[in-house]
Amino acid sequence: MSVHTAAGVVGPRRYRNNEKMLALADPVWQAAADEGLLNLDVEVAGNRLVDTGRGHEFVNLCSCSYLGLNRHPAVIEGAVEALRAEGSTALSVSTTRVRPAMLTRLEDELGDLFGGTALAGLSCSALTSGILPLVASGHLAPDGPRVMVFDKMSHFCMSYVKPVCADESLVLTIDHNDLNQLEDICRKYPSVAYVADGAYSMGGTTALEGLLELQQRYGLFLFFDDSHSLSAVGQRGEGFVRSRIEPNPLTVIVASLHKAFGAKGGVVLLDSPRLRDFLLRHAGAIAWSQNMGMADVGAALASAAIHRSPELGELQRKLRSNVALFDELLPTPFAGDGMNIRFVEVGDADLAVALSAGLYERGFYSSAVFFPIVARGHAGIRIMVRADLAHTQITQFASAVRELTA
Q1: Which of 308, 342, 360 finishes a domain?
Q2: Beta strands in 348-397 (DSSP E)
Q3: Is residue 11 in some structural domain?
Q4: Is 107 a member of any domain?
Q5: Which candidate, 81, 89, 53, places its Cα nearest to that of 305?
Q6: In total, how many domains does the chain have?
Q7: Does position 11 have pLDDT exceeding 80, yes or no?
Q8: CB within 8 Å of 244: residues ≥ 6 apart
Q9: Tens digit of each residue's pLDDT (9 = 90 or more) over 228-262
């Protein structure tokens, strides 16, 4: 067996030492591991974590629970109540065959809350892997198979499905938010789909206004993963994309329920119940996967109730206040964009790991991000700003970054 790396094929005869092969495959990741920044075993202590190996307490700035709902008492109680009421952890059967009534209730609730028809799944990734090939094949909208155009920065869970989509249609990748490239493709091919994030995992948003113009002009199909803005944006937490457009046959939105929503699983927002039923039967991982667990459904129903209360707006305002403070103390290119993710660039990958390690020693865990997640020479640290962070914690973090990068 051979391992494919950026340098080519590493054969077993040339490298018999497994550790040497692994070091060749991911030297920067190994450097992060050597600094004690990977695979941490932790215990929860409020909005802080404790590294059980070192007894080191720290603020986790990698958490995507932007509103802190993952530890909300009502959400936790919702999970416990669901287990007690159902008397089972899960049905352990394909969702196509048998579904708990509680799951259907959740989908009705999410559809009403966020607008459109909702289909819940085990994860956003499972939903994506099942739906994208059907977009490519032309089953989800008229005009037959669609040329699949992926934004260069689209999340890995979507890019991972490119080879499967390539069995159905032509797959292309364009520069980030490059609407000129996309329009050229729309002029060349009669049926095109664009695959992108709504709010990107490295910061920033999709060029939604221009995309909607292309949709109107060329019938462009839009597929968005809006996981990083669901709950954090919108009057009912409907996210960046849904808060700006109405459900329509040429737009599909998938999102994780495991981020700001504070539960677990994923949801896809569609324009019709007919399409939902079709996906349940034919969309790969959606059809063959198990149902969501009872605790996950119960937690999601409890979170949905919070989304209908004034508390959602209060949490969103706290989040915006924390983001504004962060932008004031550590200005970055995405300052003022209304999103929750910030990226401090240092350039060299080793410097990014060193900065992450230095911050961890000072009580803050932030992920070092480097190639291939970002372009070579543009490494840095990614920070997830949350509503449940204190202003003092943000101020101390900013001070530590300035000190370490001076």
Answers
A1: 308
A2: 364-365, 367-369, 379-384
A3: no
A4: yes
A5: 81
A6: 2
A7: no
A8: 208
A9: 999 999 999 999 999 999 999 999 999 999 999 99
